[in-house]
Design brief:
This protein is of the alpha+beta class. Helix content is about 50%, strand content about 15%. It is built from 5 helices and 5 strands. It is rod-shaped. It starts with a strand and ends with a helix.
Length: about 140
């Protein structure tokens, strides 16, 4: 099969068993049959999205570049959408710049919380020493 093959949702939905498993990710059709037993997340996650659009599930997990390369090796063709087909998933592919921005945002929040805790500890220690010094004078 070539990568220029076009399959409809109806075609893809016929391939939903463990031995014959197609998934759609970003309107590209992949034959995941040979990868079911090797999938690090277990076969259940692939079988749950077999024969349908798995874009959202694929992107929500945050797959590595290696996983994306493996996916390219499983490419069968493109999805040909027809009226009445489910709407495409809205998740966008994760690229290194967006994932680092998301990580940076989360790391920024973590550093901010850490800074507040440290600052609170320093202020509490200063208040303790101040009160201790005042109680010795009295």
């Amino acid at each position: 099969m070539t990568s220029t093959q076009e399959l409809t949702y109806s075609d893809v939905s016929e391939h939903s068993s463990k031995k014959d498993l197609y998934v759609v990710v970003h309107d590209k059709v992949y034959n995941a049959s040979s990868f079911v037993d090797e999938h690090p997340g277990g076969e259940e996650v692939l079988l749950d999205v077999g024969g349908q659009d798995a874009t959202e599930a694929f992107e929500d997990v945050g797959h590595s570049d290696e996983a994306r390369e493996i996916l390219q090796g499983l490419l069968v063709g493109n999805l040909k959408r027809a009226p009445g087909d489910p709407a495409p998933r809205t998740s966008q592919p994760t690229n290194p710049t967006s994932s680092s921005n998301q990580s940076g945002g989360a790391a920024g929040l973590g550093i901010g919380v850490y800074a507040i805790i440290v600052l609170g500890g320093v202020l509490a220690f200063g208040a303790y020493k101040y009160l201790q010094a005042n109680s010795e004078k009295a």
